[in-house]
Amino acid sequence: GAAGEAQCLSYTGCNFLRQRLVLATLSGRPLKIRKIRSKEEDPGLRDFEASFIRLIDKVTNGSRIEINQTGTTLYYQPGLLYGGSLEHDCSPSRGIGYYLESLLCLAPFMKHSLKIVLRGVTNDQVDPSVDVLKATALPLLKKFGIDGESLEIKINRRGMPPKGGGEILFSCPVRKVLQPVQFTDPGKIKRIRGTAYSVRVSPQMANRMVESARSILNKFLPDIYIYTDHMKGVNSGKSPGFGMCLTAETINGTILSAELASNPQGQGAVVLPEELGQNCAKLLLEEIYRGGCVDSTNQSLALLLMTLGQRDVSKVLLGPLSPYTIEFLRHLRSFFQIMFKIETKTAEEEHMGGEKVLMTCVGIGFCNLSKTIR
Amino acid sequence: LREEEEYEEKIDLSADTTGALKWKEDLTQKAAEAFLRQQRSTPNLRKLVYGTAVEDEDQESEDADDELGGLFRVSRPDKASKQKANALDCSKFLVEKPQDWDLEEVMSSIRDCFVTGKWEDDK
């Protein structure tokens, strides 16, 4: 849209920075964020946020970004989503997932399909790992009609905090319109898959994690396969560590996920791989209890793609809404004037986990403008 | 707290009824409670997410002084959002109270989510 005419939205604080910048970009509305850590000893934007803003600037054309001297106020006037072949060094204080989550929201709407190399931390304890996004977000995009050979997340090098040194490639095709979805029956879980990874520690760590996770998950299902992944040399990044990602896949193509990573070198107590494997398996059981057709990490991506879909009804059954998703829904209303119908569903059957939430909306019929120009 | 009190009352009531009908009463009561719970929570969740129009207006007039020339519209956040304004920006939904997955009854709460569990008749 014509950014100059659109009304500016104003917020305070650094929380939800990414969803605000993403929605500003997609809606073409300018954005002002004030009081960013204004009362803290070290006020203003952090290095990882500055890196994120540079990334947004890279994937767009003609964006205007103004930051005051203390870094406590940010003004953003979005340009057009441009895409193309790019690379970006992500700050190692956050995972690559922090950046990739937003690129997943923007990539389908670029002028030129996005192909980007991201460097930094592939797996940490804070953000969704690249492994989990590869296993959950890509299948979700496919359900909205964003698919093809070029839809890919490739992990070239693994990098753990604090130093990182990982590298991934993300590429995504461009779509003019998105399909509406009717996603109300998750279906039963048929198999569990996963990856146990280790870098710069004994490769035995991965096997120990797998054994302990299996011992718990086997009580529910026989079809379990957890790959071990031990990258070496330059592909193992700059810091030692290990961790695990698990996914539960249903007969209807729903994928629920859980993950855990060891403490970064020099921080916290030493974690035993057996303990990590068990806890990760239990986290997956918690995610299955929450349930729904989209895992808790990808709720907002699903709601965004429903919002931007054709002018038709989309429905998706979710587990309980995460705090991040609740704020995302509020932002969707501010940027796109769209409100969802929200219905709580108590499980009809006794052994099917907790309460679910049925989300319904009519898409705004978002068109990728750059695709209509010949 | 209120729900606990109600629950205790019901136990007293059922203790007075004869044994044969006890389980039936329990079922209707459970169904009624589940229905009420759903009725209650549905509008609440929507309210939790979108707030009410009254709250919105309050917020805007409060923040209006902050802005020069009225160029920017301050979007609404409720008090809770204000407190977390500078919190960590992270999409992960942390499990606040992990359940004890070694317990048989906890395990059975998700049994039928798996193909190895019970299937509904129509599937």
Which secondary structure elements does this structure contain, and how are they paired or packed?
The complex is a heterodimer of chains A (374) and B (123).
Chain A: E1 9-12, H1 17-27, E2 31-34, H2 47-59, E3 60-61, E4 64-67, E5 74-77, E6 80-81, E7 83-89, H3 96-106, E8 112-120, H4 130-143, E9 152-157, E10 166-172, E11 182-183, E12 189-199, H5 204-217, E13 224-231, E14 241-250, E15 255-261, H6 273-290, H7 299-307, E16 313-318, H8 323-336, E17 341-345, E18 356-362, H9 369-372
Parallel strand pairs in A: 1-2, 7-8, 11-16, 12-13
Antiparallel strand pairs in A: 2-5, 3-6, 4-5, 8-10, 9-10, 12-14, 14-15, 16-18, 17-18
Helix pairs in contact in A: 1-2, 1-3, 1-8, 3-4, 5-6, 7-8
Chain B: H1 2-16, H2 19-50, H3 53-63, E1 73-74, H4 79-83, H5 104-108
Strands of the biggest beta sheet of chain A: in what spatial order?
1-2-5-4
Q: Roughly how many Å apart are the termini of chain B?
A: 40 Å
User: What is the strand tally of chain B?
Assistant: 1
- Separation of the first and last Cα atoms of chain A: 17 Å
What's the overall average pLDDT of chain B, rounded?
66
The CATH class of the domain at 189-290 in chain A:
Alpha Beta
The helix/strand order of chain B is HHHEHH
Structural class of chain B: mainly alpha
Shape of chain B: extended
CATH topology of the domain at 189-290 in chain A: Dihydrodipicolinate Reductase, domain 2
The name of the CATH superfamily of the domain at 189-290 in chain A reads RNA 3'-terminal phosphate cyclase, insert domain
- The unreliable regions of chain B are 3-18, 53-73
Write down the Rg of chain A. 21 Å
Q: Mean pLDDT of chain A, nearest integer?
A: 95
How would you portray this structure in words?
The complex is a heterodimer of chains A (374) and B (123). Chain A has a 4-stranded mixed sheet with strand order 1-2-5-4, covered by helices on one side. The longest helix of chain A is centred in the last third of the chain and has 18 residues, at 273-290. The relative contact order of chain A is 0.12. Among the domains of chain A are: 1-81, Translation Initiation Factor IF3; 189-290, RNA 3'-terminal phosphate cyclase, insert domain (Dihydrodipicolinate Reductase, domain 2), CATH 3.30.360. With 374 residues, chain A is an alpha+beta fold. Helix content of chain A is 29%, strand content 28%. With 123 residues, chain B is mostly helical. Chain B has a domain at 1-50. Chain B has 5 helices and 1 strand. Chain B has helices at 2-16, 19-50, 53-63, 79-83, 104-108, and one strand at residues 73-74. Chains A and B meet through strand 1, helix 6, helix 8 and strand 17 of A and helix 2 and strand 1 of B.
